[in-house]
From TrEMBL:
PANTHER family (alphabetical): MITOCHONDRIAL METAL TRANSPORTER 1-RELATED (PTHR43840:SF15)
Residue ranges of every copy of the Cation efflux protein cytoplasmic domain listed in the record: 228-304
GO molecular function: monoatomic cation transmembrane transporter activity
Record's GO cellular component terms: membrane
Record-given protein name: Cation diffusion facilitator family transporter
Stretches that traverse the bilayer: 26-44, 98-117, 129-149, 198-216
Assigned protein family: Belongs to the cation diffusion facilitator (CDF) transporter (TC 2.A.4) family.
Sequence ranges assigned to domain Cation efflux protein transmembrane in this UniProt record: 32-224
Amino acid sequence: MLSRLLVKKFIRNNSNTNDEKVRNSYGFLAGIVGIIINVMLFAIKLSVGLIVGSIAVMADAFNNLSDAASSLITILGFKLSSMPADAEHPFGHGRLEYISALIVAFMVMIVGFQFIKTSFDRVINPAPVTFQLLPFILIAVSITFKVWLSSFNKFIGKTIDSSALKAAGIDALGDVVTSSTVAISLLASKFTSFPIDGYIGILVALAILWSGYSLVKETISPLLGEAPDPKLVKAIQEGVMSYQYITGVHDLIIHNYGPGKCMASIHAEIPSDINIMKIHDVIDKAEREISEKLNIYLVIHMDPISIDTKEILEAKTEVEKIIKYNPLIKSMHDFRIVGEKEHKNLIFDIVVDSAALRKIMHEEELKEKIISDIKDIHPEYNCIITVDPDFM
């Protein structure tokens, strides 16, 4: 409820999240809220830590300070990633948002390493921790703030599809666990003289490190070229297939240049006997309308397919039966027969699960097996098979 109220109050035209300015406003709001709450929590926890002499509480305090710095970097990341395209970066600077999230992740890990060392020193050289009710209540209040901040970041991240803010939501939820552990250590100090504070400090530091590792994994994946969102893949394929004369699609490749900055290319099969100007108009319309609808830049390549002869239809049906029961093969496309009389080439492409194929056999072995099965039926055909990896 509060999250929606903040969005409604501070972001104009907040429903239009495809607009870059609106999206940046969401990012700035999340960053500013994160800075305010984390600086406030840092001040509370540092004061509590100094009062009761707890290294675990102070570790948690500086974790909040690093979270405030993370929010600042998030704001900077949104600002830089929105810079327009230039000669050196023709697709814009959207990936800077991922890089800013990666910097945040490494900052979180540095804090974790530092407090492992400090907590270990406390285990070796224990110092008494004094339980006081007010500091304990303040820690409990801070946990409530972090629960809300986690839900707020997740809400904003989901609204604008930001991996940086989704990761921030997960990080804040991790802070809830660490702060709860710290609260337990404070409560335990009331009943035992065992130096539990140092051990809890190590657990908190390890939780911080795990959070940092999770953030690194989350943000480095799109930089390395992760598989596209299945929903986007399905929307593009179904969108292209909805246009007149297009009978099939394949070879969809999607490049991610940052949130809201995707370029996609796809091959569309069309009848070979259709007027070229007529189908060109259809393809142009499809590119324009789908690009606008999905907020991407789509390029469609036309593949003329001739399946209007009895020979091609029969051969295609027989080949489909041969590959149907092979779990490595996902689909077939660009099927055609070239040549005359005894010199005929049967040409087609197959899409395979590359990872599974490497575990079972070599690509050439798969082609040889298919060719052998086809030769048993049609020895007159010379088969030319292209194996395409599945980029989806």
